[in-house]
Amino acid sequence: MRTVRAPATSANLGSGFDVFGVALDRPADVIRVERAPRTTIDVTGVGSQYIPTDPEKNVVGAVADALDAPAHIEIDKGVRPSSGLGSSAASAAGAALALNALYERGHTRTELVPVAAEGEAVVSGEAHVDNVAPALLGGFTVAREDEVTPVETDISLVACLPEIAVSTRDARRVVPDRADMADVVHTVGSAATLTVGMCRSDPELVGKGMDERLVTPARSELITGYDAVRSAALEAGATGVTVSGAGPSLLAVCDPDERGRIAAAMLDAFEDAGVEARAYKTRVGGGADLF
C-alpha cells in the first residue's frame, strides 16, 4: 500500500486564468492505493456522498487507467467538491503519485502532471493542469501549453469557503469569449506583477497582481455576498482578494499575522449575506507528500 497527502490548490489567482496555480498547506486529501486485479474506489470525508465510486466517472479511475495501474483506491476527502480549491485535482494528483510509486512506473512529478490532468477531464471536460500542477509540484506554478514552471514562494493566504456550490462547468460557461484590448493589457500587467510578487515572496505585489477585469467579474456574480466579503477582507488588511479557481471560495493575500483578522472579517461578511462559510488560514505550501 502507498499513501499520499495531496493538498488543496487555488488556480487562476485573478489575472492568470488557466495558467497560474498555487498549492495550499491546508486542507488536503489523503489517498491510499493497493494493487488489485481491477480498479475499485471507496470515498469518505467531506462531500463524499456526492462523489461517484464508478472508476469511469471518478478522476482517480482515469488516472489508474492512464498509468495501466489497477488498484483499490481509498480517498479520504479533506477538500470539499465544488469548492474552487482543487478538490478533483487533489484526488487526481494524489492517485497519480501513489500509483506511480506502487507500480514503480518511474515517472517524475512533472511527467505525472498530464496524467493527473486526464483525471481532471472527467470533471471539467478538459484536461487542465492549473490545479494538478501545484498539487504535484508545490509552490506557485505557471502552466503554458505543455510546459509547467514551479516557483518556491512564501505567501500567506486566507481561503474562505461559503456553503454555495459552483460547478467548474458552470463557471466556465460565464467566462466571456471576447475582450477589449484595454482589459487585456490590464490583465497582462497584473499577471506580470503577480509573478514578480511570487518570485519575491511579496504579498503587496501579489495582491495587486490579482486585479483583472475579465473572468473574475463574471464569476463573482455566481457567489452570493462576493463584493461585501471582498471589501471586508481588504478593510481588514488583505492586499488582494479574488475568486479561487471556479469558486465559490475566495482567496485573500496577506501578511501572516493578519490571517486571523481577515478570516473573521470574511466570515462575518458572509454571515451578513445569509451564507454559512468556513475559513482556512493557510499559505502557499508544498506538493503532495508520498508515504
TrEMBL record:
GO process annotations (BP): threonine biosynthetic process
Enzyme nomenclature, EC number: 2.7.1.39
Domain named GHMP kinase C-terminal: residues: 197-271
Annotated InterPro entries: GHMP_kinase_C_dom, GHMP_kinase_C_sf, GHMP_kinase_N_dom, Homoserine_kinase, Ribosomal_Su5_D2-typ_SF, Ribsml_uS5_D2-typ_fold_subgr
UniProt-annotated binding residues for ATP: 80-90
One GO term describing the cellular component: cytoplasm
Similarity section: Belongs to the GHMP kinase family. Homoserine kinase subfamily.
Protein's name in the database: Homoserine kinase
Annotated organism of origin: Halogeometricum pallidum JCM 14848
Gene that this polypeptide is encoded by: thrB
